[in-house]
Write a structure and sequence with these properties.
globular, binds magnesium ion, binds adenosine-5'-diphosphate, about 270 residues, about 35% helix, nine-stranded mixed beta sheet
């Protein structure tokens, strides 16, 4: 009798749907891990592209931990609908924003949803938001390699993914898995951003490798990917996030320049 070899399939996005025909390029900012700076990176890239005069939308796909409203200082805004029954995105720094955080009555309202409900909400953000025509849609992904990542890869033809990591092995292990997921789903990886690369002491300006060093460089060598930037951990970066200000505009010169270079590389691709 012939034996049939079973194979695990991870789902395919070789022929994804196109739920975002209004966006010329869709870029996912992802990582295997939480707390590494995905949202911060997504926000700064979106603002950087908008500063180049491009039309940019930022979709917060982190349903259970939406950070985009606060990062953009619009956390007190609430969802409104236009006459065509479309949700009106919030806007700041020239970027149109949609987040589940804008749909809850209060900033601290938790969403206790099954993942199927979370996915429907995201699909609605693709289908029923008055985004207008966009040159770029940036998607701030939740951590991990689960439902949301797969759905996005299947529902929109992604132009590419940018992966964010810290130098720490615990983070790069998770990012390796994310790299493999994007490879399996045929999404091009545009490169890796190492965030919190080192800490700059505010008083002495001495650099400390809090999370180790070389993590992103090793990942880039292993998987033949470009290292797009190494962003240090600074007190000012944290303060700016809480105040709803962008590092690419208000940050230290060095960080501003790093982000501007990343944006330039993306826009030139
Ligand atoms: N380079 C940095 N320097 C200082 N704080 C940072 C830096 N990058 C991110 N943070 C802070 O770290 C926390 C996690 O960042 P966030 O972008 O929310 O990560 P993620 O989206 O991956 O969970 C936030 O409080 C953010 O303000
Ligand atoms: Mg986040």
């Amino acid at each position: 009798m012939e034996t049939i070899k079973k194979k695990i399939t991870y789902g395919s996005s070789q022929k994804p749907n196109n739920r975002a025909p209004y966006a010329k390029r869709v870029i996912a900012i992802s990582s295997g891990k939480g707390g590494v700076g995905k949202s911060t990176v997504a926000a700064n890239i979106a603002v950087g592209l908008a500063q180049k005069g491009l039309r940019v939308g930022l979709l917060d796909a982190d349903i259970y931990g939406p950070s985009i409203p606060r990062l953009f200082g619009v956390e007190n805004e609430h969802l409104a609908w236009n006459d065509n029954n479309k949700m009106i995105p919030s806007e700041n720094f020239g970027v149109k924003l949609m987040s589940v955080g804008l749909t809850t009555p209060q900033n601290d309202t938790p969403l206790v949803w099954r993942s199927s409900v979370a996915i429907s909400a995201l699909i609605q953000f693709l289908d029923d938001v008055a985004w207008g025509e966009l040159d770029y849609m940036i998607i701030d992904m939740p951590p991990g390699t689960g439902d949301v990542q797969l759905t996005m890869a299947q529902e929109i033809p992604l132009f590419g993914a940018i992966l964010v990591t810290t130098p720490q092995m615990l983070a790069t292990d998770d990012v390796s898995r994310a790299i493999m997921m994007f490879k399996e789903t045929h999404v091009p990886i545009l490169g890796i951003i190492e965030n919190m690369s080192y800490f700059i002491a505010p008083d002495t300006k001495v650099h400390y490798d809090i999370f180790g060093s070389g993590g992103a460089k090793r990942l880039c060598e292993n998987y033949e990917l470009p290292l797009l930037a190494q962003i240090p951990l600074t007190c000012k970066m944290r303060e700016l996030s809480d105040e709803g200000k962008m590092a690419i505009i208000f940050g230290e010169n060095e960080i501003k320049k790093s982000y501007q270079e990343v944006v330039k590389k993306i826009a030139e691709r």
